[in-house]
Amino acid sequence: MVVFFKKNNRMKKPDNGKGKGLFHKGGKAGSDAFLSASLDKTVAEIQQILGHSDDLVMKYFKVFGQYEAVILYFSNLVKQDSINHDILKPLMYVPDHLKDRNRPLGQLADMIIKETLYHSQAYPERSREKLIEFILSGETVLIIDGMTEAIHIGTRNVEKRSLSQPETEQIILGPREGFIENIQTNLALLRYRLPTPDLQVKTMKIGRLTQSTVAYCYLKGIANETVVQEVEKRLSQIDIDAIMDVGYLEQFIEDNPFSPFPQIQSTERPDKTVANMAEGRVAIFADGSPFALLVPVVFNQFYQTAEDYSSRFLMGSFVRMARMLALVFSLIFPALYVSFISFNPELLPTEFAIAVAGGRAGVPYPAVVEVLMIEVAMEVLREATVRLPKQVGGALSIVGVLVVGQAAVEAGLASPITVVAIALTTIGSFATPAYSAAFALRMLRFPIMILAGIFGLYGVVIGIIFIFNHMLSLRSFGVPYMSPVSPENYQGMKDVIFRAPLWLMPKRPSFLHGANRSRLGKTIKRNEFGNE
């Protein structure tokens, strides 16, 4: 099996660490700068780099009452009780089991880490740059006079919000937990649902200033190793000052940035992430973002929800078909309306055509201008509703539509049938589960309407052909975007328009080229009475 990947010209080649990190501007320190044996000199060099911040704590004391030492940490990134009881208290007083033993300086680091500290995360470190990164990330650094290596202790404790129901992916059936901004909590949610040694988590730091932790996760033996390597390659080539959200990563690693269609799926649901990883996909997380990125993806994923699989297959298939009908409505319904009214009224029933013509009698401009005007007004109203507070946004969305629509009809700016058509289109766009895919359809709606206003029904057909040709040319990490429709795959077609019963889908999607395609054991065949 061979997977071809499109060359990404937006990412630089790896520079082997040059030009990155805290000292990328050519400071005195570097990756080969080690600690001095002098405590005062080391502290002065670290303080020169970190500056004189009020939240930087430097606590001087004597280890076992004998060796001069200092601990450095940022007070707003640690839990002070842990510093006092787990670090300072055992270090300032000699433990009973060490009172009668010699405590030479050369063995002091091992003695502190293995026999003294009440902490599971304590490691020696000689690099000054690494120690600076540890302090900035919320860890505590212990420096002892006369030693050329320090000890960094994992004490990071950042306040985070509690787990809550995902705001952007509402469902009726299924789990209610959603990701939060803390990456460790998000990875813990994955581990909770995937207690298997096959779950592999790889992390890296991206962002010269933010040094954001980015993790990509996959199931070993299920995910395609070629895709995993490509994900690592694209992430490692990102060279930017700051990473604030996984959306920053998406813009660097997607195959075609000029396409309106998303080639990477984002989700804030742990159950959806695990389900996609079980099919062979890779999940990407960034510290500070409550979303995960899933790669590779195909188009049919964007109108599917986790609820489709939690419910019985008849219910899931029916809801999915209704969702697809709404998707078609949101894309071409206004264009069809314009083409029928302006160019092809003979396709409408006579009574309906007469009623439409009577409703548009007072409108002074063509149908395409009328539809574009009302559509733009709806888009502006939708954006205003999203940005307003919840207490005001709900009232504005209802009152705004009623008042603006009725006023436009009475003023002769639009006909009643046009308002109804645009309302159905807007409702259809709300039915698309993925916001990025719904936004792509909203953008493409306008050029199709313009084509319909110029060429009529032929323009609509031409626009749809161009859209499908573009979608057929797209790839997501080497996977054709329209799989399993094109290239056609019988097993994959069971989960496109209809959702087949789970026991009729024993294989994972073939277009992912996973190492292990079987996901179902012995299939149980049941007769009409429900017995085996």
How would you summarize the topology of this molecule?
Blueprint: H1 39-50, E1 56-63, E2 67-74, H2 80-92, H3 108-115, E3 122-125, H4 128-136, E4 140-144, E5 150-153, H5 183-193, E6 199-206, E7 212-219, H6 225-236, H7 246-253, E8 265-267, H8 270-279, E9 282-286, E10 292-295, H9 307-310, H10 313-342, H11 350-359, H12 367-387, H13 390-410, H14 416-430, H15 435-455, H16 457-473, E11 475-476, E12 479-480, H17 490-493
Antiparallel strand pairs: 1-2, 2-4, 3-5, 4-5, 6-7, 7-9, 8-10, 9-10, 11-12
Helix pairs in contact: 5-8, 10-14, 10-15, 12-13, 12-14, 12-15, 15-16
> Radius of gyration over alpha carbons?
30 Å
Tell me the total number of β-strands.
12
Instruction: List low-confidence stretches.
Output: 12-31, 527-532
Helix content: 40-55%
Approximate shape: elongated
Describe the main β-sheet briefly: 5 strands, antiparallel
- Terminal Cα span: 39 Å
Q: What is the number of domains?
A: 3
Mean pLDDT: 84
Which class of secondary structure composition applies to the elements?
alpha+beta
* Strand and helix order: HEEHHEHEEHEEHHEHEEHHHHHHHHEEH
Which sequence of strands runs across the widest sheet? 1-2-4-5-3
Can I get a quick summary?
This protein has 532 residues and is an alpha+beta fold. It contains 17 helices and twelve strands. The protein has a five-stranded antiparallel sheet with strand order 1-2-4-5-3, with helices on both faces. Strands 6-7-9-10-8 form a five-stranded antiparallel sheet, sandwiched between helices. A two-stranded antiparallel sheet has the order 11-12.
